[in-house]
Amino acid sequence: MQLTFGNLLGALVTLALVLIVGIRAGKKVKNAGDFTNGSGMGVPMIAGSLVGTLVGGASTIGTAQLAFHYGFSAWWFTLGGGIGLLVLALVFVKPMVRGGYRSLPQILSHVYGKKAATLSALLMSAGTFISIISQLLSGQALILSVAPVGKAAAMLIVIALMAAYVVFGGAWGAGMVGILKTVLLYVATVVCGLCSLRLAGGLSALREALPAAQFWNLFARGIWKDGGAGASLLFGVLTTQAYLLPVLSAKNEKISKAGAMTGGLLTVIVGIAGIFVGMYMQLSAPEIDPATAMPLFILRHLPGFVGGMVLATLLIAIVGTGAGLALGISSMLCGDLYRSVRPNAKDRELLLVSRGVITAVLLLAAWFGFSEAGSLILSWSFLSMGLRGAVAFAPMCFALFAKRTVPRPFAVAAMIAGPVLVAAGSYLLPAEIDPLFLGMAGALLICAVGWLAGRPKQ
């Protein structure tokens, strides 16, 4: 479908507003610390940055795509992500903040040494990289739905927007634009959700029209499959630098907790609108490509100006999430690894390297994403979260809470075994069982054996 004049006007107004905020954020970047950490952020900035990074294409377009087939089973991405942020606030913020940590590699380096931290940073960056691919696929689907361009051009447009979003403003750009994006996104999702329910004849009519076992069941794909999806988000959020970064950049512990809890509550809510849109499009247009369910719904059923604003908001959501994840990779690779190689590097050099890493990551993700066009968006997101959790969750927990130190060889073995077992499980286990459980069990067992062999912490 083609954009109308009203669509274009609404989109341009929204994008211009975001551009103004992004430029103002860029002026706050005075040094490398401001770029990667956004030092001294308050509750709105933290919540905005969290929602801005976590709620993106997978939470909106990807959720509608999966809901087109399985209804409420698609809620697990935002539900699991929100629960993960709540657990972060209630359990993990206190030891992290009081330990003076600014990143996950710092936690692991403090207990297990720099080599272990380097290994974890590389493996975690690989897991985060996979999630960027899902955002690129979402953005490509959105642009192909509204513009007469090819797949390669659509992908390049998304990359350029992601780079512009974060390369200039860094953490301040992700946080300030994240606040604006959160407001716009929640207005947009409420409009889409209510509109889809009205068109379907109400909630009761939608329930009668679609089979309950398939569309109104959180475990429609099986308890082990959907439970594993929720667990992937829980563990992935707790071990992803892009989500720890704003929380650990707060002024104090109280603000860290409040920001994480606010972001968690907002994240849980946002997926429901995408579910209703996906289910309505299953009824009204079962012949469409499910990845385009939400963009086509907006073009067909929302007024021109409003539809343009919502489309622009979805694009911003996709761009913000992908850019925030790229910033997390840059923070680990530059803030932890590059500094260890060049401890005397000046701020200008660090800023240049950080921005170069972000650009390179986005280009490489686009190459992978282009080869996987048409695949299920949420499957990439669940895989990414699961791999991150399998790498670092067990070593991190033992580093923060155990009274005995796990010897370094056991921690390193757990970091390697976790993702290897996840990959092996995808081939060895039945399709209805998420391989995350095998990877997490292996990593926890190795750390537990190491804990028994370790010494009391000094």
Task: Give the helices and strands, then pairings.
Layout: H1 5-26, H2 32-37, H3 43-54, H4 58-70, H5 76-98, H6 104-112, H7 114-146, H8 151-167, H9 170-200, H10 203-209, H11 212-215, H12 223-238, H13 241-247, H14 253-284, H15 293-301, H16 304-341, H17 347-371, H18 377-401, E1 404-405, H19 408-428, H20 436-453, E2 455-456
Antiparallel strand pairs: 1-2
Helix pairs in contact: 1-9, 1-16, 3-9, 3-13, 3-14, 3-16, 4-14, 5-12, 5-14, 5-18, 6-7, 6-18, 7-8, 7-15, 7-16, 7-17, 7-18, 7-19, 8-16, 8-17, 9-14, 9-16, 12-18, 13-16, 15-16, 16-17, 18-19, 18-20, 19-20
Protein model, in words:
By secondary structure, the chain is mainly α. It has a single domain (5-376), classed as Sodium/glucose cotransporter. 80% of the residues lie in helices and 1% in strands. It contains 20 helices and two strands. It has a two-stranded antiparallel ribbon. Helix 1 (5-26) packs antiparallel against helix 9, helix 7 (114-146) runs parallel beside helix 19 and helix 19 (408-428) packs antiparallel against helix 20.
**How much beta, percentage-wise?**
under 5%
Radius of gyration, whole Å: 21 Å
Quaternary organisation: single chain
How would you write the strand order of the largest sheet? 1-2
What is the level-2 CATH architecture name? Up-down Bundle
